[in-house]
Amino acid sequence: MKIPHLSLIALAPFCVGFLTAQPADDTQLKQVVIFGRHGVRTPLLPNSALNNFSQQPFPSFGVSGLGVLTPNGGTAETLLGGYFRLWLTQQGLLTGKDSADAAFVYFWANATPLIFETAQAFWAGMLPAASVDVNSTPPPASDPLFDPVNAGVARLDEQKAVAAVNGRLGNNPASLGSAYSAELALTRSILFGYPLSQTPVPGTPFGKVDVTAAPIQVTAGNSTLPVNMGGLTDVIAAIDPFVMEYADGLPSADVGWGQLTSGGISQTFRLYDLILDLEFRTPYLARVQSSNVASHIVRSMVQASTGNAMTGTLGNPSTKIIMLTASNTNITGLAGLFHLDWILPGYQSDVCAPSGALVFELRQSQSTGDYIVRASYITQSMDQLRNLTVLTLAAPPAIAPVFIPGCSASNANFDCPLAGFVDLAMQAIDPNSADLVN
Amino acid sequence: MRKNRAICLQLAAVALLCGSLLKAQPVDDTELKQVIIFGRHSVRAPVATNEQLSPFAVQEFPQFGVAAGILTPNGEKLETILGGYYRLWLTQEGLLTGNDTADAKFVFFHANAIQRTVDTAQHLWAGLLPAAPVNVQYLTPSTAADPLFNAVGAGVAQVDTPTAIASAMGRLGGDPQSLASAYASEFALIRSVLLGYPLSQTPPPATPPNVTDVITIPFAVTAGSQGSLISLGGLSTVGVAIDPFVMEEADGLQVGWGQLIDDGVSQMERIYNLILDLEFRTPYLARVQSSNVASHIVRSMVQSATGNAISGTLGTPSTKIVVLIASDVNVCGLAGLFHIDWLLPGYQPNFCSPGGAMVFELRQSQSTGEYIVRGSYVAQTMDQLRNFTPLTLDAPPASAPMFIPGCSIGNATFDCPLGKLVGLASRVIDPASSDLVN
Lengths: 438, 438
Prior knowledge:
With 438 residues, chain A is of the alpha/beta class. Chain A folds into two domains: 27-152 and 286-433, Phosphoglycerate mutase-like (Rossmann fold), CATH 3.40.50; 158-281, Rossmann fold (3-Layer(aba) Sandwich), CATH 3.40.50. Chain A contains 15 helices and ten strands. Chain A has helices spanning 12-20, 47-50, 71-90, 98-101, 113-126, 158-166, 176-179, 181-192, 231-247, 262-268, 270-281, 283-306, 328-338, 382-386, 418-428, and strands at 27-37, 105-109, 134-135, 216-220, 227-230, 321-326, 357-365, 371-379, 398-402, 416-417. In chain A, the strands form two sheets. In chain A, strands 1, 2, 3, 6, 7, 8, 9 and 10 form an eight-stranded mixed sheet that branches. In chain A, strands 4-5 form a two-stranded antiparallel sheet. Chain B has 438 residues and is of the alpha/beta class. Chain B has two domains: 30-156 and 283-433, Rossmann fold, CATH 3.40.50; 161-280, Rossmann fold. Chain B has 15 helices and ten strands. Chain B has helices at residues 2-10, 12-23, 50-53, 73-92, 100-104, 115-128, 161-169, 178-182, 184-195, 234-250, 262-281, 283-306, 328-337, 382-386, 418-428, and strands at residues 30-40, 107-111, 136-137, 219-223, 230-233, 321-326, 357-365, 371-379, 398-402, 416-417. In chain B, helix 4 (73-92) crosses helix 6, helix 9 (184-195) crosses helix 11 (262-281) and helix 12 (283-306) packs across helix 13. The longest helix of chain B has 24 residues, at 283-306. The interface between A and B is large, with 74 and 86 residues.
């Protein structure tokens, strides 16, 4: 950025015309892989614990249980499934005969009730007349696709994990405190209930814990997180309910105690995005944690294109729709492995919203027979979630076409030749962190 | 490792063992053989003239006493202070002897052709080797396209403009305007400073006549010019309008007409960082723009390690210190090519502050003879810049050791074996975007 680009305004119309002049799309959808996050859920900590972090008590979601799908979350997920039904019918993968179509559909979900029920709710929207059929790894075993380290498929070198994260932070994670001071200040003002503009800021209320003051550090992780980010994990626990309060449709007075708009939620969630980035997008961690799911996705597309059964795939050669349901950590990790980015209106970059999904379409050119992959990130907007907006082809969820670095072409759909995607996957995937189990 | 740690948590005695295992790094028996310092120019006047900037603000921008884009006298002094620090460090490491004229034979300085980078390099030299005549290589005239720092302009790298546009568009869901809501708090801060009202004022006042509200100019991704391969429409204009603030702060001037304190500048710089990230870290753009400088850096280290002259290097096999001075765009692009991140106190992640440099140390183990590379990002803090703080080994500039993904091991200094770095470089560097010219 050296010189003002003001003189370029005249060039802009040319570029728009150029971008519009794409060759006709003669591709046909052959298979779709949908990798989605669970729907709107209750907070992960009980209010008795969360209330230590806030001046006022956290609101009730009216649902018993921690980290469970709310009724509205289930409804929103079924609405999303209904949208995919319309889209995939238009694309010719679904016929309207649900029971017959179900033979070409493969659902795999993490086994936790939150995620398993999300997959069931999606199925209910996509194939309402067919009996639900969702695969999972029976607990207490860990899922090899979504938790390959605990499942024994991948091995995490903890010392290297800590180094890989510390080495993005100059060995000084506490520096995040000043870099994110605006978000931490906003978070504190919401939790302790004072205007952000108040100076000096009030002290910590008696008996409460100021999560924004806890030291941020990087140490060895636990069974769910590859590294422990110290105080940053407490901040995440404290702000985790806000998105869910909004998306679940709680009264405005119960969304951040009436202090948070969707824009404010989005800003506080930069801290959430930060921890996901550090824990799951850090290249070493993405490679360990996401190679297995990446391998299975790519191999499944190869299997569909050749028609020959292969190991390490999901479904069989005739499977047309693969639905994987897991957590934001899993989707973030896969995106990190391939350096995929997206942004949708109202969200921060790379946010995995409740129910949102990374979608890979395997398409075949009708003129050349070539197979290509198109990626997109599809999610309901915060208001579509909150309002349980019915989704149609004319009123779709938010859709971000995603460029796949090292593969996508420059056309409007960022088409990535399947062979190029396979080459890229072979560079990105760690064979020691993936298996060939179906 | 996971299982080992689980035992640590259960058994106090083993936990102690594991704790000491983590701390027990082998003694560092490496010796510095060569250092490559890839720095940004120091403090300069804004790149746009005050006449060009004046439509963007209600008040006149301050005078820096030098023409647009020229290094300030303070910037010159600061760079010499930084050079003095490198002198102390490299003397301690044995690369400098105190005999400047003799040492100068093993030093190679190359700067981009523009005034601020040449002047920066010359002043860094004055601090590093005060008794030796300054010897900085650069192209003439100042408009010349340097193959290392403007590889496309120099004809070394070819850019496919539609792919350049698609690669950035495909990180933004095809809709750059989504950035307006994602960065709403930064744009609100920017508008309040440029238009001179308190950020907390609601509703924000209308734009006065004769003032251009830069944050309302539509964002776009179009073909670039002038050293960037893409232009970002209104976002580029915002970048121009906020460019003066960091320099005001670093040059000791009043910042943002007194409305911006440290964290405010840092928060605003997120927009500048966003522009750099899109234009220079986007994988395709990093590969086109930064492969040539990456190739020269890695080949120079190989040349030094083997002692045999090879093409496409900087200096000779006996060169001990290589200094490259260019712009933030160049440093940012090289970091993007290797997916390297850093964070220093008071700055945003990956911020290239005035005078800041990526530093690559080529070191040799005295026991095994093995060559390793250590990366770090070294920069004066904002206070060190504002206060002309003398820098010593006891009071050094800020330094962030960097983990090099795909190469660094898990030790405390993130050592990256040279052989592994060469393998990594051969994967990330585009041979069609680099040359073998010395």
